[in-house]
């Protein structure tokens, strides 16, 4: 420790700070790719709601455990952000499920009415059936004849917004885009830590405090509970991918950021200290982070096994 009371910045402390900042950046942008993918598809059928719900429960337990354990305000703030982001994803999934169910019911009702109407001439039926319905990239307009104008304007607005966030690249182009996104995450995370260190917002934590810090029992229990939730959350998604024999509709970048966030988080903790008391204190969060990496790798394998041929878009593959 320096004469002014500050802890010197060692290589391990710098590495811990950098990795922690990169991990935080991964978590901040984690759900954005999947939210965009759901919007682009016009549905969230690829996401297992049980996966998101169990993850949300784990984040809530993590937040409460962090409050009881007296973790630093930044960690608590990030935990609050996790819960809000989970809520946004769950809301989006439920919205698309309700909207598409309502549109499908309306389509079936309209189709049944047109089919069973005895006043419609047979020639008129065949002529109308031969006209192909306009495709809107897995989005159904769902508009009635009396609202065709409004439906057309709504479709144009949706198509315009979709072009802004469209990601129709496959194969090497998709991997290049994901690689550049990961590089951007590292750049932002490292820049954030550098600014925080230079301005004094981040300082190295003293090593001797780890042996004297006591964590509340409730916080420790909730920490382990959140770890169990994180470990179990991906299992429904893995099973769903296996049953569907497809990962279409899932964002690969979403799981890449999850893997990197968990990896850098665990590595940042281990770089800070290998002290037994310190490791035991952070063991629930280490289990929750490093343990889910195995499941992320399984999902990566599923992306590979169920991959769509590069020369065909997903919609062209039956």
TrEMBL record:
It is a multi-pass membrane protein. Residues 107-155 are annotated as: Disordered. It is found in: Membrane. Keywords: Membrane, Transmembrane, Transmembrane helix. The keyword Membrane applies. Pfam families: PQ-loop (PF04193). InterPro entries: LAAT-1, PQ-loop_rpt. GO terms for biological process: vacuolar transmembrane transport. It catalyses: L-histidine(out) + L-arginine(in) = L-histidine(in) + L-arginine(out). It comes from the Eukaryota. One of its GO terms (molecular function) is basic amino acid transmembrane transporter activity. The keyword Transmembrane helix applies. Its main location: membrane. Belongs to the laat-1 family. This is Vacuolar membrane PQ loop repeat protein. It comes from Penicillium alfredii. The lineage of its organism: Eukaryota, Fungi, Dikarya, Ascomycota, Pezizomycotina.
């Amino acid at each position: 420790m320096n004469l002014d009371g500050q802890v010197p910045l060692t290589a391990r402390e710098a590495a811990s700070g950098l990795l922690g900042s990169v991990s935080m950046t991964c978590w901040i942008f984690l759900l954005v790719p999947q939210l965009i993918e759901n919007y682009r598809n016009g549905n969230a059928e690829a996401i297992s709601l049980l996966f998101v719900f169990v993850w949300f429960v784990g984040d809530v337990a993590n937040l409460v455990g962090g409050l009881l354990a007296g973790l630093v305000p930044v960690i608590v703030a990030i935990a609050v952000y996790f819960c809000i982001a989970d809520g946004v994803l769950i809301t989006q999934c439920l919205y698309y499920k309700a909207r598409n169910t309502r549109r499908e019911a309306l389509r079936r009702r309209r189709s049944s009415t047109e089919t069973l109407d005895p006043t419609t001439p047979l020639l008129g039926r065949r002529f109308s059936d031969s006209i192909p319905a306009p495709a809107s990239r897995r989005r159904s307009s769902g508009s009635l004849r009396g609202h065709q104008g409004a439906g057309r304007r709504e479709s144009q607005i949706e198509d315009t917004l979709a072009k802004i966030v469209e990601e129709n690249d496959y194969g090497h182009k998709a991997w290049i885009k994901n690689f550049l996104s990961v590089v951007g995450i590292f750049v932002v995370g490292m820049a954030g830590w550098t600014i925080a260190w230079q301005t004094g917002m981040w300082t190295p934590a003293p090593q001797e405090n780890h042996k004297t810090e006591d964590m509340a029992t409730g916080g420790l229990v909730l920490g382990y509970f959140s770890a169990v939730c994180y470990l179990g959350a991906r299992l429904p998604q893995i099973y769903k991918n296996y049953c569907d024999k497809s990962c279409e509709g899932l964002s690969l970048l979403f799981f890449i950021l999850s893997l990197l966030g968990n990896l850098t988080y665990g590595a940042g903790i281990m770089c800070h200290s290998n002290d037994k008391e310190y490791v035991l204190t952070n063991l629930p969060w280490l289990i929750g982070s490093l343990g889910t990496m195995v499941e992320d790798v399984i999902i990566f394998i599923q992306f590979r096994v169920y991959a769509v041929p590069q020369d065909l878009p997903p919609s062209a593959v039956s």
